Amino acid sequence: MTVLIIGSGGREHALAWKLARSPRVRRILCAPGNAGTAALGENLPIPITDAAGLLAAAARHDVNFTVIGPDDALAAGVADAFEAAGRRVFGPRRDAARLEWSKGFAKDFCRRHAIPTAGAEEFDDLGAALAHLRARERWPVVLKADGLAAGKGVVVAAGLEEAEAAVRAMLEERRFGAAGARVLAEDYLTGSECSLHALVDGRRAVLLPLAQDHKRLLDGDAGPNTGGMGTVSPPSAARRDPELAGRLEREMMAPFLAGLAADGLDFRGLLFPGVMLTPDGPRVLEFNARFGDPETQVLLPRLRSDLLPLLEACAGGHLDQAPVPEWDSRVAVCVILASENYPGKPLVGRPIHGLEDLADAEDVMVFHAGTRRGDDGIVRTSGGRVLGVTALCSTVEEARARAYEAADRIRFDGKHCRRDIAAS
Ligand code: AMP
Ligand code: GLY
Q1: Burial track 243-269 (b if 16+ CB lie within 10 A, e otherwise)
Q2: What residue owns the CA closest to ligand 1's atom 5?
């Protein structure tokens, strides 16, 4: 069959790489894709939120199944458009993806269905927000724009001055446009973070292994937040505590599924709660309605069985009939190579060297994100996060060493990576 993947990041290259291994997939299309997905099939130059353009391409190429990668496409209603046209699609409809595109909606859902999360208050009025901050006793406070802000809408403010500046930027200056017209002031939680991924078919959930992202730009969790600088699966918390996944399933996924039923919300797709493992137990920080990036670059290399029937069953609402996924017990580590100036406006167009040396490595996978192959055949950088280098080995120490050894063989001007992914 022909599969269309929507998106252009490392997540989408990993999805394409895994689906290309399915015995039932004959052809992979990716819109708009990158140099990595182009090597597995054909890239279509269509923006991810152009539902009409994507549907027309699906008809033209006889696409049998479509997989949506990014949140912006879900929030734009691309899944709704495909469903309305009678086309099978993996990814929740816009109303269910609201769990990601409105943090206020997600917080309310957690409260009503007893899903453990941080306490928060919501404001759309600057005066009320400032009055709350001035009277606030618990510091730091976490200020979050309600809508999608490309990972930049969260500010941890240590004191009043910083907090005031953040809410003014959102509510007064409209730095995030409509996404920041509502603000959550959330209690600050401490602990280690963990990414939970579950395929949800509306009624049931199948958990994927746990992963951990490293979101800050610099070693030691310093510097600004990014989309993610590297991942490990399983994370150290799960390696230490084999009961952790079961606990998250009981304390988060069970009330989540009960909440869907109670609200009549038909969520079919990938639910990825960002979780903080606090001294008082696990708490949801946010819901994502899609695979994590770069979590996908460590999860899919660990999947030994076919991904396609799982995604199809999830989209079709019959996960109970899907084969049980088989997971590799080895550890996967992914190191992101980013462009100069990321997460600000990246400096791009730089030739990438060393990719061909790694093409045949068995335990190393190089996933492309911001890359483009020019007419001259040269692959150049074209975005903030450029490549994800994943190694799969028996121990975390070996996987780290192997991932860094491979990452160091790739060269481009201004290349930046963290040196401490999976180190703790
Ligand atoms: P979010 O987009 O809501 O996941 O927030 C982005 C990042 O901000 C998270 O990965 C955390 O590192 C941090 N963060 C979010 N909420 C909190 C919180 N309540 N307490 C501490 N850190 C937080
Ligand atoms: N790596 C975090 C995310 O995909 O949101």
Answers
A1: ebbeebeebbbebbbebbeeeebebbb
A2: 154
274 CB near ligand 1 (under 6 Å): yes
Residue having the nearest C-alpha atom to atom 9 of ligand 1: 285
Looking at the domain covering 2-91, what would its CATH class be? alpha beta
Residue 154 beta carbon below 6 angstroms from any ligand 1 atom: yes
Q: In what order do the strands lie in the sheet with 331-338?
A: 212-213, 230-233, 331-338, 385-393, 364-368
Q: How many Å lie between the centroid of ligand 1 and the Cα of residue 93?
A: 25
Q: Which amino acid belongs to residue 311?
A: L
> Closest ligand to 212 CA?
2
Pairing of strands 65-68, 89-90: parallel
Q: Is 142 in the pocket of ligand 1 (CB under 6 A)?
A: yes
Q: How far does the centroid of ligand 1 lie from the alpha carbon of residue 287, in Å?
A: 11
Q: Give residue for tokens 């769990």.
A: 99
Determine the residue type at 187: D
Same fold flag, 119-187 and 330-424: no
The DSSP 8-state label assigned to residue 101 in this structure reads H
CATH number of 119-187: 3.30.1490.20
pTM: 0.96
Ligand 2 midpoint to CA 273 (Å):
10
- Percentage above 70 pLDDT, the chain: 100
The closest-lying atom of ligand 1 relative to the alpha carbon of residue 274 is 4
Question: What is the pLDDT confidence band of residue 225, given thresholds at 50, 70 and 90?
Answer: confident
What was the pLDDT predicted at 99? Answer: 97
Return the bridge partners of 288, or none.
272
CA 273 / ligand 1 centre spacing (Å): 11
CATH annotation of 330-424: 3.90.600.10
* Residue ranges of domains in the chain: 2-91, 119-187, 330-424
